[in-house]
Specification:
alpha+beta, BirA Bifunctional Protein, domain 2, 2 domains, five-stranded mixed beta barrel, 15 helices, 18 strands
Length: about 525
Amino acid sequence: MREGEEKGPGMAEKERSEQEVVRRQKLESLRTEGYPFPNDAKPTLRAADVSPLLETEDALEKSERSRHTLAGRLMSIRLMGKAAFCHLQDSSGTVQIYVRRDDVGEEVFSQFKTYDIGDIVEASGYVFLTKKGEPSLHAESIRSLVKCLHPLPEKWHGLSDVEIRYRQRYLDLIVNPEARSVFLQRAKIIAEIRNFLNARDYVEVETPVMATVASGASARPFSTHHNALGLDLHMRIALELPLKKLVVGGIERVYELSRVFRNEGISTEHNPEFTMLEFYQAYATYETLMDLTEELIVDLCEKVIGATTVTFRDKEIDFSRPWKRVTMLDAVHDIGGVSRDYDLDTLEGAKEAGLSLGFDDFADMNDQGKALFELFDRHVESKIVNPTFITQHPTSISPLARPNQENPRYVDRFELMVAGMEIANAFSELNDADDQRERFEEQLKAKADGDEEAMGLDEDFVVALEYGLPPTAGEGIGIDRLVMLLTDAQSIRDVILFPTMRPQQGARTISKA
């Protein structure tokens, strides 16, 4: 043990496995030889580039071939007397390395034979094609860069405790190529979203993560306290209100792609912190955004996935345009199969429909809009597979949306439903400051009555509306769920690098002073 190092919980020698003890002994042996943890590696080639390079160099003589350096993690080692084959993995993939004693030297080859799977190494040499037809690098030198002190899982997919993948994402990425592929796809999806919006003159901005009022969505916030200012603050539950203030200020097309935080349960479709895209366009309606949403997601399918038909949870989903558009009320009848004998446009009719489906709590419903929404949420949502816009939501459950001019009991709003999940929520924005204040006050009453998800009243936002918000439409898209759909990920935890997890009992945490 080096000076100043302390053994913490879980670090006692007797608690380490036999393989871990052996690996640490190898490291200590290297230290006595002055092992410097080399920091001068300069790879000139990636694993994925070896095969294409062979097209020009395979026919050349050994001496004529260019020399290259690869660096990465050892994923397999096969010793064969005076030679060995190993596989090296970098961010682009995996490539075979051929190591022969006569080429690298006796001392280096002896050291190489002590390497373990998981070690990070550097190899230099020329590319060639083995007799079995595998593109490889013939090493003329090889050295250890970093010692891996833990054995890698041998049968990753066979692990019974799948939560290890989420708790130790670095392990998941090392040994599970599919996991790395998902997160590379996620990065491409986010990059293409930015390209799409930027090309249409949207301006990307950043707004505060903490606010004195939790508003812009129906959700319970996380709360904190700012000591210096003596302020109770909330982590944002939505991006909406600051972005609409910017539209008031003259940025007529604006978007933000960032994290939001909601103090809610965890499921295959929910994580307390998640990535949200919200964008707002002046002089547009929710119908404008339906067209734009179709364009955006089809663009992602074509440019990132390479097809407009994907498979998700064993269901084939067709994103080809146009997508179905149906009102929430009609969806309950036409998709949910609820008889039109029930007049869902009335409180009594909606209550009777709910009771007929076995929802006993409908007997206590006192709001037609809430009852209609619950009918859709409980009985219809899971039945939707292909992308469908559910329009005309009740005003009573849409405190920030513009009322429909023909029937103000409903608002000009849609939710995009795919595979039983809400992917997007959008509406023509309410820009009547007095109406907005009244709706916020109704939310405050609901909060006082015990609704922890009711919104707070953002006074500055109401004042901003009083200066005049142009006719505007806005939308929020859940990026994590969208990535789930496009990559066939079974859980939201599969598309979030570090999902929220309950701490393991006895887990050790290390912090810097």
